[in-house]
Amino acid sequence: MTEFDDAATVRFARIAGDAPGPLPDVLRMTEHLPDAHSPRRWPTALAGVLVAAVLVGGGGVAWAARGDVPRGTSVLGVDLGGLTEAQAHERLSASHRLSEPFIISLAGREIVRTDPEAIGLSVDVPASVAAATRGGRLIGFESVTPVVTVDERKLYDVLQAAALKARLASPGTAPAITFDGTTPRPVYPEPGRAIDARAAAKEVASAWARKDVPHVALTETTPVTTREEIDRLVTELAVPAVASKVRVTVDRGGFDVPPAVIARSLVFAGDPLTPRIDEKLLRAGLGETLSRLETTVREASVSADDGWPRITGSRTGRTVDTGALARDLLESLPRSGARTITATFTETEPVVSTEDITKLGVTEQLATFTTSGPDGDLDPAAAERLDGALIRPGDTFSLHRTAGRDSSPQLAATLFHAAFTAGLEDVEHRPHTTYRAYLPAVAEATAAPDQDLRFRNDTPYGVLVDVRSYGRVITVTLWGTRVHDSVRIDYGRRSDIVEPPVTYETPGPDCAFDEGSPGFSQEAWRIFRKDGKESKREKLRWTYDPQPRIICGTRP
Question: For 506, which of 306, 368, 438, 556 is 20 to 30 Å away at the CA?
């Protein structure tokens, strides 16, 4: 079994070495020290040494200590000497060696070409720069080995695939016990050859940092499970498991788990080989049996499919706990003779109860509006998504969120007029730029990807959206509980009328006659009445642009 350490990091000690190029004059002065047989030159030479020491202690120290990284220090061949940590970090990060492909020697002969990203190889730049600043040196030439990280799993996948392709590695045979119907079949393990992920990561990181070719060997993998262990599992578990059925008792009777279902759900996997009952396979094998005992959770809802609001009540879900059943079933399988276990149920309460929906008070019609638009203007898919939307008290409805940004203008206009006459709070809308004859002026709205339609349910009751469409005709009805005696719209006279311009186009299949429409301004008032008197009125005003009249023919 191969274990992976996804954050394997290899750290290296400093590797000291002489750097090319002349030393500063102040240091090369030591070359002129006299030998032991020249006593007359000692005073002069000693004075020279003292001068050099003074220079090193003064300006020489300043030159050598400039920056955070000592002079002459490099990482990956990148000179960082004399730089601050921030400058060193930037220079090392920009090094081209961090992205260059390189080769790996596999089993002494196979060459694998890869790149750092493919195996998760990277340099910990902050740690490497920190290593370059340690040591207390002022001057000298030193190559500091970087801190390198390799993703063991990625490296293993790359090298193992190459090794298998070159037939250097073999997967071996994993231990297993399978079933042919209800007859157990042992699968005995065989050793294989594979990459040692941890050792390979260490070698690649070390060699890459040295600018050397990594040499990765393969190791023999021997399964932990023995033939004897497999035979024991067959004798003590697999054979008795399918020898007879297992009876399961429940609070409403019981059912049997037949040998065929046991064989399909009893799984032996891993190394060491471990038996378990696969919960999903067990449920699939007992599908019809469990369906007679279980009930799915149902959320309460309200709809107007029958022409009037109707509540569908909630229901608690009740399912067999197949996790506990699988555990108890596995424990019973080695036993001989009659085997009986007990199943338990898990209950799931609905999020929305019947009481929750009833309290919303969706009981009467607030408003309804019907339009018959141009051919192709209605989007049936958007209308279907809108149908059945429930707007809770205080919530703001968005046509974009509910039906999508591609909803048709006809759907938006019909919905807006219904919401407007239902007395709901207008949050966002915009009428069409040009007048549409099939819509009421001013009290209408368009929709576009960049234009939403939003209104708020400012009543203490829920509002149900009911949409019916057929061909070019669409009807939107809103259901809830009335909080106003009535809501009506009064229209003012049109003003600033601009007759539509006339354009002539060449007759043909691409020319479509259009009657056009005038441009004009108009006002509308939404008037609310409560307790027999007017309680509120709201004013809308809109100006429509003229829409040209298109004639297929020659200008007279």
Answer: 438
260-267 long-range contacts (CB < 8 A, ≥24 apart) are: 260/181, 260/182, 260/285, 261/285, 261/286, 262/182, 262/329, 262/333, 263/179, 263/181, 263/182, 264/179, 265/326, 266/179, 266/238, 266/241, 266/242, 266/330, 266/333
Report CA 361 to chain centroid distance, whole Å: 39
* pLDDT tens digits, 248-300: 999 878 999 999 999 999 999 999 999 999 999 999 999 999 999 999 999 99
Q: Output b/e per residue, 521-550; b: 16+ Cβ within 10 A.
A: bbbbbbebeeeeeeeeeeebebebebbebb
The domains of the chain, with CATH numbers, are: 8-100+123-148 (no CATH), 242-354 (3.10.20), 360-552 (no CATH)
How much is the pTM? 0.62
- CA atoms of 555 and 541, how far apart (whole Å): 36
Reduced to 3 states (helix: H, G, I; strand: E, B; else coil), residue 193 is strand
